[in-house]
What does this fold into?
Amino acid sequence: MILTGAEDLRVIKSIESIKDSFGQLLSTKEPDQITVTELCALARINKKTFYRYYSSLEDLMAELSQEISRKFLSRVQDCALPRDLERFNENYLRFASEQDAAFEKFACSIALAQVRQTLMGVLFRKCWERSPEFQRLSPIEQGLVECLCTTTVHRAYQLWVQSGKKQPMEAVIQMVNRLTRDSLKSFF
It folds into this structure.
């Protein structure tokens, strides 16, 4: 349940507790290993309270994904791709690196690949849809450009996390920008 600010304080505390507890569990477990019972015990609520706001853990995950998406899009709302691709990549990598352990699990978990791929596609489409150059491409070319960009920037983040974040983020940003810029030259 996305809070509007008009809710009763108890509702706000319950929702925040559910989200915080889910984040704690997600930072240490794969999503398919988390149960509603376990979540409710950690959140110190009963199952009835959880089901008042969410029909399932997948519902909760979808809402959290939307929240992440909105936060990120607020940073790149004026980006028009391909012109601002380097700024988009930098913003994505900086945004991702500023998030918590639950986000890292979300970003790196194999079990969440489909959710993540859908989310990344939405993010890129929002920025590509304003591009006349992109609109002139055929549907398959659009799909390939989107795939190249989303896969490159996100996989770079995953590798950075998996390697213990040893590489400076500046270097990762430069590599991603070089790869995407050079790869897209033939399209634009």
User: Anything to note?
Assistant: DSSP finds ten helices and no strands in the chain.
